[in-house]
Amino acid sequence: MELGQLREKWKELVLKGHFNEAEVLYWENMHEISEKTLIKKVSEMGMSRYDWLIIPAGLEKRYYILLINALKPKKVYFICTKEFRNYFLDFIIQKASLKREDYEIDDIEYSGMDLAEIYGKIKDRFPLFEGKRVAVDLTRGKRIMSASAGIMASFFGFDIVYIDEEWIDEIKRGLPGTETLVRVRNPYEVFGELENNHATYLFNTYSFNSAAILFRDLCKKVADPRIFEIKALLAEGYDQWDAFNYIAAEKKLEELMGKLRQYGIRFEHAQIANNLAVLKFLANLKPGQKFEENLKNEDFVVHLLIDMYLNALRRKEVNRQEDSITRLYRLLELISQYRLSTHGITTSQPMYSKIAEIEIKYGELTKKLYGTERIVPAEIGIKDGHIILSLLQDELWKGKSFDDLKRFLGSVRIRDNSIIAHGIELIGSKAFVQFEGIARDFLQKICSMTGNSYETLLKNTKFMKLNS
User: What is the per-residue pLDDT for 148?
Assistant: First the structure.
C-alpha cells in the first residue's frame, strides 16, 4: 500500500476513534517511511552533530524517536514526568537504539511543577553541556517544561529545534511523513545581544583590546555585521590612543569615519570628528621622539597635557588608582618641562648661567624647605622643576606662596613613598584627590595662559561611551 493510501486509512481510523488500530498501522507501516524522509531532510540541512539533545518530554514517543534518529546526537537528556518514564521511555530507547550510557534522565512530579524547579534540574546538569553543541527540543512536552527549557536555551546559547508537520485540523494531529525539522535561531545569536552587552561593558570600562576582539567575533556571527565593524574599529583606535600610539590611533579613526560614510550608519560622528582633530595635534609626537623636541609646539603640548590628564582619570574610574597617580605625576613633570623651556631651560642638560642669581636663590630656598642648602641639579626632576619655576615667578606659580610649594612637594613625596615608586605605602583616596586637584589646577592655568578653553579641550579629547 502506498504512503498516500496509508495516510487516508490512518486518518479514517483516527476519525472513527479507533486510536489503537491507527497507532498499530503507523508503527507497522508508516514510521519507517516517515523516519527515512526526515533523516534525508536533516542531512540536506548540513547540520553538525550535536553533543547533547535535551528533550523536555511529554506523553509522546513518535516525535522523540524521529528526532533522535534524524539528529543522531551523541547523548540525550530527558527531563520528564514519572508517567513518561514509566510508560514511554523504554519504547523510545528501544526504537532509537540508545544504550544506557547514551542518555541521562530526571523526572519531576507534575503536580506543583514550576519553572524554578525545572530550571534548577537543568542547571544542575549544566556541567554536562558546558562548552558542547547542544540542541533543545520544543516539539512536545508539558508547556511549563518547554518554557523552562526554552528560557535556558536562549540564555546559554543552545540551539532550539522542533518538528513541524502538515496539520490536519479535523483530527487535531499532524500528518505522518510530512515532518520537517525546524532550527530556531537563538535571538542572542542572531543579534549578538549577549556578546554585544559584554563587549560594550569591556569598552566602557576601557578594556578596549578585549572589546575589539568580541566585536570582531560578532562580525562573523550576525546577519548584518556593519555596526559591530564600526565598534571594533573604535575600540581598536582607542586601544592605540590609550597606549599613546597616536599615529596608529589616528589611522584607525580615519578608517572608521570612512566606514561610516560608506555604510551610511548613524553614529557619534561629531565626537569622532572631535577626537580626530585632537589626534592631528598629538600625532606630531613620532615614535622614538622625545617630548623636549616638541616643546615649542604649543598646540601639541596643551593637547598632550589634556590627554595625559584624561588617561589618568580613566584609570581612576576603574579603580586603578596607582596607575592613575603615575600618569598625574608624569603630567606634572611634563608641565614643568614645558614651562622651564619658556625660560630657556632644558631639564636634561640645564644651563643656569643666563639666569641671574638662580644658584644662590635655589640654595636658600632648599635650605628653607629641607633644612639643608642644595646645589642646582645637573638634571631637573619634577620637584626641582617646580622649585625653579617658583623662583622664576613663572606664570604657573605667580601668586602662590611658600606654603603652596610645600604642599605641592608634600603631595609629590606621598607618590614617591608609594609602592609604584618603590615605596611600601598605598596612596589613599584623600591623597589622590589632593594630587589630582593640583594637576587640574595647573592644567586649567596653562589652558588660560595659552588661550585655550579647558572645557572644550576636555570634551573633544574624551573617549566616547557606547550604548548596548
Answer: 72
421 — pLDDT class (breaks 50, 70, 90): very low
Strand partners, 451: none
Show the cell assigned to 169: 485540523
Answer positive or negative: Cα dihedral of 433, 435, 438, 439. negative
423, pLDDT greater than 50: no
Long-range pairs for 377-380: beta carbons < 8 A, 24 or more residues apart? 377/350, 378/350, 379/347, 379/348, 379/349, 379/350, 380/336, 380/340, 380/345, 380/347, 380/350
Question: According to the model, what pLDDT value does residue 189 have?
Answer: 60
> Can you give the pLDDT at residue 424?
43
| Rounded CA separation 56/125 (Å) | 14
**pLDDT of residue 186 exceeding 90:** no
Q: In 8-158, where do the E strands start and end?
A: 52-57, 75-81, 103-108, 134-137
Evaluate if residue 155 carries a pLDDT over 80: no
- How does pLDDT run across 3-19, given as a tens digit for each residue? 889 999 999 999 999 99
Q: Are 227 and 200 in contact (CB under 8 A)?
A: no
Interacting residues of 358 by C-beta distance below 8 A, sequence separation 6+:
352, 376, 388, 391, 392
The counts of H helices and E strands in the chain are 22, 8
Question: What Cα–Cα distance (Å) separates residue 112 from each residue in 117, 118, 124, 148, 263?
Answer: 10, 11, 20, 14, 54
Q: Can you say how many angstroms the Cα of residue 406 is from the centroid of all Cα atoms in its chain?
A: 44
Closest by Cα among 185, 159, 181 to 70? 181
- Grid look-up 537543568 returns 122
Identify residue 255 by its one-letter amino acid code: E
Mean of the per-residue pLDDT values for the chain? 89
Nine-digit cell string for 2: 502506498
> Does residue 204 register a pLDDT over 70?
yes
Write the class of the CATH domain 3-190: alpha beta
DSSP 8-state assignment for residue 292: G
Q: C-alpha angle with apex 199: 195 to 203, nearest 5 degrees?
A: 170
DSSP H or E run through 103: strand 103-108
Sign (positive or negative) of CA dihedral 411, 413, 414, 416: positive
Take residue 283 and report the three cell numbers written for it: 600625532
* H or E element in which residue 180 lies: strand 180-184
Each domain of the chain, given as residue ranges in start order, spans 3-190, 197-461
For 228-238, write each residue's pLDDT tens digit.
Answer: 999 999 999 99
Q: CB under 8 Å to 459, separation ≥6 — which residues?
A: 274
